[in-house]
Every structure is written in C-alpha cells, then in structure tokens.
Amino acid sequence: MTPTALPELHLDLNDRAFILDPYPRLAELREATPAFLDPVWNKVFFTRYEDISRLLRDRRLGRSILHVLSRDELGWPPPDPRQANFDHFQDHHLLDAEPPRHTRLRSLVSKAFTPRRVEDLRSRVVEIVARQLDGLAGLGTFDLVSDYAETLPVTVIAELLGVEEDARHLLRPWSAAIVRLYELGFSEEDQRAADAAVVEFSTYLRALAARRRAEPRDDLVSALVAVEEEGDRLSEDELVGTCILLLNAGHEASVNGTTSGVRQLLARPGAWARLVEDAQRHPDAPSALFAGAVEELLRLDTPLPMFERWVLEDVEIGGVTLRRGTEVALLYASGNRDPRRFTRPDELVLDRDEGPHLTFGLGIHYCLGAPLARLELAVALHGLARRFPDLRLARPEEEPRFGKGFVIRGLTRLDVSV
User: Of 254, 296, 380, 385, which is the active-site residue?
Assistant: First the structure.
C-alpha cells in the first residue's frame, strides 16, 4: 500500500508559525515537492491545483475506505471506544459515504435542502445582519468573531433546522467540540469533548424529530422527516448525522470565511474602499461585485484548507503511483494559490474571473451547503461595508489570533473599530 516514486518529508500542520501564515511554506512545496509522502501522518500530500482537481473528480478515490478494505488489511487498531459516538455519527452522514450509499443520501437530503429553501432564507439573513449591526453601531470597537461572524450562521442554521430559541446557545459549543477531531493530532480531552457533544446534540435532534413527526413545521428537520424517494426514507441516525454535518460544515466555513475575509480586505484599504463604494450605490442587496469578492476571499484564505481522500483502486497521477489503501491529503489552500491556475495568486482581485477555486471541493462530494455559505458571506460583507465604511483593524500591529488547528483554520478573535 506504499506509494511509489515519492519524496518523504514531514509537514507539521500543528506548528504555530505555519498556522499563522502557511502560504510561504506551501509555495515552496508547490514548486519543489508538489507531491510527497509524510511518514509521520502516513499520508501523501498534494499541493498543485491540477493534481488536487483531478483527484477530487476521480471516482477511484473516496472519503471512506472500510467498504473496500478491512481494518486488519489496513493495519488499523480496533475502534477507539473513547470516540464511539463520534464514529457512529461519522458512519451516518453523506460526507464520508461513497456510492451507492452516497448517491441515495445526497438525493434524499437534496429533496429537503433545496435551492429554493436557501433562497427563501435571504430576507431572514438580511434581517439578522441588520439587527447585529444595530447592536454594534455604538460600540466603537468590537470583536468581529464573537460579536458578529459567529452569530449569523448559528442563527441561520438554527432557524433552518427548526432549533428552538432555548437551545440555540448550545450549537456553537457543540460544533467547536465536534470539529476538533478533524484535526491531526487531537488529544484525549478533544475525544471526550467531541463524543459528549455528539451525544448531547443527537439526543436533542432525536427529540426534535419526534416533535416534528407529530407536528410538522416549515423547517428542514420536518422536511427531512418527511422526505421520501421510491419508498425510501432517511433513518433516524442518518437524519441526525445530516443535521450535525450541516451545523459543523456550514458554521465553520461561514465564520472563518467572514473573519479571514474581512482581515484580508482591511489589510488592503483600496479593496475595502471599492466594496464600500459599491455598497453605497447598491444599499438594498449585494451586487455582483460582492458575489465575486466572496469567491476571491474564499480562494485567497481558504477557511477549510485541507481535505482527505482514500485510494480505492490503484491510481497513477503525474508519474506517481498511489496504491489502494493509501490516504491522500489535498491542500486546498495551496492549490487555491497555484500560479499555474491563477494569475497573481497571492493578490486580492475582487473581480477575478478564472474559474472555480477548490474551497467547496469538486466532484460528487461538492459541498451541499455552498449556496447558503455564499449567501451568508455576501450579506455579512455587504452589511459591514454599508454600515461601517470606516471599519479598520483596531490593533493592526498585533499577531493574528488563529486557533490551534490547520484543517479547520480560523481566527479566534479579530478586534475592529468603526
């Protein structure tokens, strides 16, 4: 199962300096070692856009491997009982499923989580942003993460699912605990916290689903309970897994995309001024310039910088043979700045028009929640530019405050002044 013709090196994804600014090191790797075996993580890393794009679209790779090889064949230890509930959740959502199960789950979920349902949220997203901005107007200085960026996606996901007001404050802590296990090198404490969060969230969702079966409402849980295709329905475990996945994926991408995006804009006054001017001309809704800015900011500073795949059948790419059972790490953050794909890749070009970035993935696992994330980001940026044209970093000389992880890379605090 060992890949051939690959250099070996270790990329310390938990190194503090790398998390703060991974792009110089990624650029070095992209030029000198575009694909390499990391013997510490036991993964093959890819850094160039073309390779990542090809691998994402290749059906010989997948998000899971145990439907092809057993734990014994892979040389894995038995499942860790400390994260049994987390693993159970992982086994029942569509992100880590492969066809035909993935096809079935995605089809069922798509019937409930429709583009129309997302678009119907637009006016509500605008209302939430306006209320937040009203509350921030007199503060002078505030934390963009906790005072603004976190509130919107949590509120939207809560309303989308139908989570009651008295439980909404639990969503962010649950999500933060669960996603820690997607990092490499998590601790036993992280395991316990994630497992407990899955239990608590699952218990809440099962009770919510029971209430919606008895009294359906116009929310996603009601729709997921009711959705059916050719006599097939989601099991309760699948419904719970889908809802937890929507919270985790949608919330983390939106929060990190908003805060990192604003940081990038405020570091380039000309870009911010251009958005401010456009927001004054189009005060009622984000224009095409904001839609383009969202795509560019997601490319420039990728909120979910790395995703993994398993090799299901032997694959050759760029002269490198990947054997079945190999795990590959696709560095989206590197591919999104590949000069072979994007001109001036380290610059912020608001109206860039060079085709898709990698941030939402490609192929059958393309992010189901991408339209909602784009909507939230555009409205959040437009609201800030319209209400706070003089927005600036409160302490530009300070080192950015990023969290401890790279796989889900985001600011923990960003003080801004109006």
Answer: 254
Tokens 């729709």 belong to 223
**Considering 167, 196, 367, 370, which one is annotated as catalytic?**
367
The better pLDDT of the pair 311, 251 is held by: 311
Check if 235 is active-site. Answer: no
DSSP for 282-308, written as a single string = S-SS--HHHHHHHHHHHHHS-SS-EEE
Number of independent structural domains in the chain: 1
Task: Identify the CATH number of the domain in which residue 32 sits.
Answer: 1.10.630.10
Q: Averaged over 166-177, what is the pLDDT?
A: 91
249 among known catalytic residues: yes
The answer to whether position 210 is within a domain reads: yes
Q: Which one of the listed residues 150, 183, 238, 252 is annotated catalytic?
A: 252
Helix (H, G, I), strand (E, B) or coil at 233: coil
- pTM above threshold 0.90: yes
164 part of the active site: no
Across 124-137, b (16+ Cβ under 10 Å) vs e yields ebbebbeebbeebe
Asked if residue 90 belongs to a domain, the reply is yes
